[in-house]
Amino acid sequence: MKLFAKPWTFSATLHVLLVVMVVFPIVIISTMILQVYKRDLLQQTTERSLQTLHAVTYSAQQEISKIEYVTAAVGVDRDILSIATELHQADESNRYTYINAMERALSRYTYSMSSQLLAIHFFYKDGGVYSFQQNLSTDEQEVRAMEWYRRTLKQTDNVQFLGLQRMKLFGQTEPAGLSAAIAPSAFHTLSDVEMVCFTLNEEAFEKIFLQQPYDKSAFVIVTGEGQVIASSSNWDETSVSLARLEQIKSASEGHFIDKASETEMLVTYAAVGQTGWKVVHEIPYSELTANYNRIYKIVLLATFAVIAVFLLISFYLVKGLTRPIHVLVRKMSLVMEGDLNAKIGTSGIAEMATLGRTFNHMLDQIKLLIRQREEEEQMKRKAEFAALQSQINPHFLINTLNAIKLMALISKVDNIRNMTNALMRLVSSSFNRGGILTRFSDEIENLKHYLYIMEIRYGHKFEVEWQIDPQAESKYLLKLLLQPVLENSIVHGMAGKESQGKIVIAANVHEGSLYIVIVDNGEGMTEEQLTQFRAKSSPHTFSGMGFANVHHRIQLHHGEDYGLTLAANEPEGTKVTMKIPLIFKNKDEESL
Length: 592
Hints:
Blueprint (H helix, E strand, L loop, with lengths): L1 H4 L4 H66 L2 H12 L5 H16 L6 E8 L4 E4 L7 H5 L2 H8 L5 E6 L11 E6 L10 E8 L2 H8 L7 E5 L5 E4 L10 H8 L3 E6 L6 E8 L4 E8 H4 L1 H47 L13 H41 L1 H19 L3 H17 L6 E3 H19 L3 E7 L1 H4 L2 E3 L3 H13 L6 E10 L2 E8 L6 H8 L5 H4 L2 H13 L4 E6 L5 E8 L11
Parallel strand pairs: 12-14
Antiparallel strand pairs: 1-2, 1-5, 3-4, 4-5, 6-7, 6-10, 8-9, 9-10, 11-13, 14-15, 15-17, 16-17
């Protein structure tokens, strides 16, 4: 445990990691590669074998189709059936004539398969058999009693490929031969032929294997009962075991490794159509793994060589990497002590040079941030000093207005006194240090003072109608929100109006918000100006900074769900709707 209690050095950690993360992965990867190669080798060999089997089964199916075609052609040929009938009915004096006619008629169909055709048997309805080429040595009644004979009679004009059947011929040592049969239908009423049966040898199927490239593998075609139809020359007859036959019967095609025999084999098989036959391909397992064994030795030697070379290079790189890191650690210690001039060199490998430049740039940025911080603190102190100094100006302005008010009172000039009093109250409210919020009722009073000044200024050219919901008067809002909007209605709406103007100021509480509406019947705004404001594109271009300032202040403090909405007033003028949240108490206002 003491080994892990103390932190390791970077170089020691890298050495251990290189040994653990190089040797083990390379060995594991090499093993996996060999296993994958072995699996792919078997898979590719199996796929090639199945492709070969498909070609062989296709060729075998073609041979079967050819046999079925010839059988069908003979079985429905009226000339052949008529000759066979006349031959059956002829006496010995003219029988030879019909035999020659039958041979000429059959030669038209059998010339392409003459080397594999053993015999053609015509079974008659009232008994008797005519054999073409070779006679039956099996009793006729025994043949008629066979199951395939009865099945074929039930399916007239349909060729039945019988496969291997035990019908011995004179002069043949094999007890069975390939057979196909057809029963002419009742349509042939003048024919005495009940069944036509072909018997052939396996020569055509054995020729299929001669087309395959010669190697140490073997091919065989077997029936479901294990009878061999045809095989390649190097096939071992002892390989057809009961266990292998059971595995072959399990599916139409597949593969398995047979370890039961003396020589371990990769066995692939595929079905030949609907015959119940299987084409089997056997490949010695030792032939498949011969290349694998050679590659295994090569990979093993290459793995050890790669590990040795990699470790040598890795130890050299570790030494080159740790030296600059030690330098960086020393420089960082100096920075921790307050030395911001402890820069490092930017030479060496590219990554370490980049690390050096980054470290030096970081020191420069730290010094720049410290300098900017000092400048910001200095500017903040200047701004605080200017704010303290600016507090003197409002008091001076209010005192001056109060003096003008007293002089107007002494001179008994009531208009000047009242206007000065309204302006003094308005300025005093604006510079009130009570925060950024004001009660709505107080804001209404300030507006009344402002309206008094504007009525004096414009000569009572407009009248103001108040529609204030009592619930709204107790709510709070930002200072000086309404005065810029009202100023826009008077200055831009009423200045050029010749008739009496009217301004309606309404306020109500609706769905959790305070809505304040200022409507005038002045000159109004163009559609282009309204579109610009709705698109938030330079709203100050048509109304000074009034609308822009108010809209921005509301959204800055309360979010984008609130603000101003401008619309045309019918039949003339402008309608401004202000939406602000309900504020019930004037506390925590500086956080808005």
